[in-house]
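If your schedule permits, I should be very grateful for your opinion on a structural question. I have a record of one protein: its chain in single-letter code and its fold written as discrete structure tokens. Kindly check, if you would, that the fold set down in the tokens agrees with what the sequence suggests. I remain grateful for any guidance, and I place the record below:

***
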Amino acid sequence: MPGESPRPGRDPLREARPVRLPRPSLPLRVHAFDPYSQTSGPGTRAVVWLQGCTLGCPGCWTPETHPPGGHEVTVDELFAHIAGLGGRIEGVTVSGGEPLQQFRPLLRLLTRIREETSLSVLVFTGFGWEEIVRMPGAAALRDRVDVLLAGRYVRDLRLGRGLRGSSNKTVHLFTDRYTAADLDAVPDAEVVIRADGRLAITGIDPPPRDE
């Protein structure tokens, strides 16, 4: 069924080269951080939007995350912030921007989350599955992620539900923590008023920004 990871047989991820983890001080370029989101995966989740993407999908909802830049945060600082949320969140979602274009520090962060917490991990990427399995360190990535949503956003195939922006995107369930039904139950959008009065609109099918 769509959304499931490949079944037994030759496993290209297990044949990928081992990855060497970077120094803990290697920074991530972060666009935004939301400690409590209801629309970025099952349950209440902390969301990290990374800065920088060269894929250039027409119609992307977050073009402001594409240019280089962002706020540099060390992996250890970001992990401490996430861990400090304690039992108030079920997991962490990483989006962008393009998370896999910061592969090494991202993997370091996911390693700490997997080894030092019980939080689940969900990652959105614009890279397709066939591209991901050829990346050095792909097997290590899979071992640290519960759900991966993969593929370019295609405006003509817009879907806007089940955490898939367009119908070509694939969902890969690497653990038994969630099912496809759990993803379908996630609200499509939310509007949050921040403490400073700013509106934050998130979700896979958010309302137009000019409304």
Remarks:
- The first strand starts at residue 27 and ends at 37.
